[in-house]
Amino acid sequence: MTGPVGTPRPPAAGAASAAAVDPVGADSGLRPLADLVEVTIVVDPVFDQNCYVLRRRDTDRALVVDPGLQGERVARLLDDRRWGCDGILATHGHPDHVLGVPHVRRVAPAAPLRLHRADWALLDPSAWRDQGLPVGDGGAIVPDEDLPGGAAVRWLGLTLAVRHTPGHTPGSVCLLVGGDCFSGDTLFADSVGRTDLPGGSWPQLAFSIRSQLFTLPGPTAVHPGHGRPTTIGAERLGNPFVGQSAAP
How far does the chain reach from its first CA to its final CA, in angstroms? Predict the structure, then answer.
């Protein structure tokens, strides 16, 4: 294994102080996330993986999305800025998106980790080692709650809607808030998540993107797990693997 778990590349063959999850849908409109939330991106330089720290601008409270190998830097950011962390959301269970959880919990021990239950079995360092993936040294990673499709994470008056998008992994999800989508390793700018690791499925991934993401409004901003941001409209039109220009 020579590249990151979520490397954008062609598919292989084939609540003031706490966030709450409840099983209802949400419609937050298309108000830009930046109007209400400061988003800090902490990039892992090894895998070019993006961890997103969301802080409600009128508070000192934060959510952390996908803390990976940059987990110590994320913890330092929270500590230096004196932000409390109300929760950790993982778009899937690959190590480059969850290895930072123990580091974040050192400064926010009460912050629950939410991950789709279908990916809980992926949190096995021995399996990561067998696949040549990083295993980390921060301690055990144990989810606290499921993050199922159709649920909504309610946090300080905002709602993050959860869409289940299997394909990269069985439990991959995307998080929608207003006009923004945190797509994990499901959809990238001009690419899609790889499907050659255990649990991956190209037919599932293509279906997930077309049914769960390409049905969103074109201006929806996409914040991927790796690489630069894009929009749903740009990918629906020009993504070489699942867009209108893709080979049938």
Answer: 29
How would you list the strands of the sheet with 113-114, edge to edge?
A: 37-44, 49-56, 61-65, 84-89, 113-114
* Among 133, 101, 117, 112, residue whose Cα is nearest residue 197: 133
CATH 3.60.15.10 fits 20-238, yes or no: yes
pLDDT at 131: 67
CA distances from residue 182 to 50, 187, 225, 231, 235 in whole angstroms, order as listed: 10, 9, 8, 11, 14
Name the β-bridge partners of 97.
none
98-121 pLDDT, tens digit each: 999 999 999 999 999 999 999 999
**For residues 161 and 8, which has the higher predicted lDDT (pLDDT)?**
161
Structure tokens at 81: 């800025």
Mean pLDDT of 175-190: 97
pTM: 0.87
| CA 97 and chain centroid, separation | 7
Q: CA dist 157 to 23, 104, 152, Å?
A: 16, 23, 12
**Residue ranges of the domains in the chain?**
20-238
- Residue 117, CB-side half-sphere exposure with 13 Å CA sphere: 5
pLDDT for the residue 32: 62
Instruction: Return the number of other C-beta atoms located less than 10 Å from residue 243's C-beta.
Output: 17
Question: Coil, helix or strand for 104?
Answer: helix
Closest-CA residue to 79 (of 98, 100, 56, 60) = 60
